[in-house]
Amino acid sequence: MSYALDINLKYEKTILKWLNCNYDVVHIEVIKIKGVGSMEHGEGVSHTVSDNKEKKRFRLKMPGAFTILFILTIIAVLATWIVPAGAYSKLSYHAGAHEFKIVDAHHKTTTVPGTQDQLDKLGVKIDVNQFKSGAINKPISIPGTYERLKQKPAGPDQITTSMVNGTIEAVDVMVFILVLGGLIGVVQTSGAFESGLLALTKKTKGHEFLLVFMVSILMILGGTLCGIEEEAVAFYPVLVPIFIAMGYDSIICVGSIFLASSIGSTFSTVNPFSVVIASNAAGTTFVDGLYWRIAGLIVATIFTIGYLYWYAKRIKKNPKRSYTYDDKVKFERQWSVIKNNSEDSIFTLREKIILILFILPFPIMVWGVMTQGWWFPIMASMFLAFTIVIMLIVALGKNGLGEKKVVDAFVNGASSLVGVSLIIGLARGINRIMNDGLISDTVLHFSSSLVKHANGPLFILVLLIIFFFLGFIIPSSSGLAVLAMPIFAPLADTVGIPRFVIVTAYQFGQYAMLFLAPTGLIMATLQMLDMKYSHWFKFVWPIVVFVFIFGGGLLVAQVLVYS
């Protein structure tokens, strides 16, 4: 039997005693009355009294992001002892000398003229102009050059060394994230964020999903056009407090930003970091198969938005059905900027200017990435410039907070994202171990042998699965493209299908893994929002299944049409 009683806390024990005399099991929920008690609304106290003590259920707890990456680092070290070492010869173009440099498996270097004839002799079916124009600017694997090498196992010291070196390699991304954190800290301290959110929530009441829809569409477009992935991290501090104010959870935040941008990248149309470089490395052009990818993108967008709408409606109806409900209080404490007593706060002109300056760097960043080729150092500098201007506005003037308080806000904001920065470095350390242990190319060679004797739909489906697992070992889209495409693309010729189909299989397979792979960006995202990996997996697995079923069907259709 259950009772909901509006009672003062000091009478709770008395009533419990009385009720327990009459019932075997009693559940009492104490609800705050205006002016009575000190409990917050929605934080009711539940008491269950029973003659028999309930047995505690065993729950398998998923470790945190740092622990997962540490375990994977150890596994990577062990793999260098088990997986045979080997390497392909690598080819790179030197524009100044107009020649190709070839580094073989034994690190011996030779140079040959930078001509199409030389590429044909090497079996590299790529237009030489792709190298001369800079479209391919990374070393590519030369088909048929794989050699077994002496085992190069990593020692126990490599566990920590790889962590340090991986972090050093990721320093550009880390600086960007720390500057972003500092910017957020300053804006939150100014009170502008809080006032702006209150004004926004009043205007969007009843149409909350519209913002989720608009953000998702923009991120999908960003993913398919220019491969916004790491850059998407910048949007969490802006959008998360907004979604909280609208009654959504952390899943919606990650879904509308990371998931949406990744779906766009999965069905890339002109993304230079995946489909363009992969097409060039495969000896075809990104225009080939473009209409197929556009059609796939439309279907995938409808499915993803529909899935987000279903989930948003579900938690709006009953917040307890959120996959992250257990962490709801902690999450909102970390990210919410609206105080309980701020209903009547005034959105001043000064706060409006601060918010405009805060939002302005984000579209500038997107423009810079898409049109100017900006990378993290430039983006960090641009964000820092805006941060300094905002700090001056917040610190100076009649109602200014002063230099010390503003600087402290910047430092505290940056320090809150240190964990996120380290996660990115640790993930890169895992890839470094596998590369230094010479096992990445071995996996690539073994994978190519699996599809050599397959034909038709079976060939492309097996290739899809291969790229799925390769996405774990090589989480970089451009990195996997230049390494794998010269190896797998010629196999398309042997089974009589266009090479662009191989490129599409690479996109679907790798990104299906990157929704899940701890070696990818997802761990940094989960660390930023303090979300459990198990909660994310529960939400995202239908998307992964969709990519496999729909993507696999699309690939088979292409094979049947063109073979």
Tell me about this structure.
There is one protein chain. The model is unreliable at 1-56 (pLDDT under 50). Helix 10 packs antiparallel against helix 12 (290-317), helix 11 packs parallel to helix 21 and helix 19 (440-451) packs parallel to helix 21 (477-495). The protein has helices spanning 12-20, 65-82, 116-122, 128-132, 157-169, 171-190, 192-204, 208-226, 236-245, 250-266, 272-281, 290-317, 328-335, 349-359, 361-372, 376-395, 403-415, 418-436, 440-451, 456-473, 477-495, 499-514, 522-529, 533-562, and strands spanning 2-5, 26-30, 45-49, 86-87, 90-94, 99-103, 109-113, 140-141, 147-148. It is globular and about 75 Å long. The strands form 3 sheets. Strands 7-6-5-8 form a 4-stranded antiparallel beta sheet. It has a 3-stranded mixed beta sheet with strand order 1-2-3, covered by helices on one side. 63% of the residues lie in helices and 6% in strands. The chain is of the alpha+beta class and 563 residues long. Among the domains are: 2-49; 89-145, no CATH class.
Structural class: alpha+beta
Portion in strands: 5-15%
Mean pLDDT: 79
Q: Helical amount among residues, as a percent range?
A: 55-70%
Distance from first to last alpha carbon: 68 Å
The radius of gyration over CA amounts to: 27 Å
Shape: globular
- Stretches where pLDDT is under 50 for at least 5 consecutive residues are 1-56
Assembly category: single chain
For the sheet with most strands, the description reads:
4 strands, antiparallel
Q: Biggest sheet: strands side by side, in what order?
A: 7-6-5-8
Strand segment count: 9
* Contiguous helical run count: 24
